[in-house]
Amino acid sequence: VLDSQYGMYVWPCAVVLAQYVWAHRRSLPGKRVLEIGAGVSLPGVVAARCGAQVILSDSEELPQCLQSCRSSCLLNHLPHVPVLGLTWGRVSPELLSLAPIDIILGSDVFFDPKDFEDILITIYFLLEKNPHAQFWTTYQVRSADWSIEALLYKWKLKSIHVPLHFFGADKEHLASSSLPGRHTIEMMIISLAQSDGT
Length: 198
Prior knowledge:
Elements: E1 2-3, E2 8-9, H1 12-23, E3 32-35, H2 42-49, E4 53-58, H3 63-75, E5 83-85, H4 93-96, E6 103-107, H5 116-129, E7 134-140, H6 149-154, E8 157-161, E9 173-174, E10 177-178, E11 185-192
Parallel strand pairs: 3-4, 3-6, 4-5, 6-7
Antiparallel strand pairs: 1-2, 7-11, 8-11, 9-10
Subunit structure: Interacts with HSPA5, HSP90B1, TUBULIN, UGGT1 and UGGT2. Interacts with TET3. Interacts with STPG4.
Main location: cytoplasm
Family: Belongs to the methyltransferase superfamily. METTL23 family.
């Protein structure tokens, strides 16, 4: 999915996560959603169009990514969606002052293994503040030794694998686009390993 006028490329993981958001659209009105590493922010934009209260975020060190978030909001008639600079692994004033959250979205944030722990530190911080929240994430399996199981355990998090066919994301063409490498995309929901004694 390429918008040549604005130079925005939507990664297949974002399309798959947006499909999951769309599949859950009836539960979204009034929900408070934060998208991390948002970039073009397709999942967050879909959530906002479905009635969620959305905040988009990307690294404060990547102004072009924050600008992509703002451009997506304007293109989709969502001028009031806030865009925050949040850097993974850093407990910043922006992170500390976030309003309560129900759902965190992240598509293809597990890209570079050196970032995995910083991402999970941020997710753990958010889930500790919002124990009932969930982190919905899609990722592309790029190597056989890709795993965050040990890090999830270290940060007292658990994950549930969500098969793509559960939400119609296993089709050859998704969102009117043939997605190269889509067969390697996985989805999981991450939450606190123990919330309310469960």
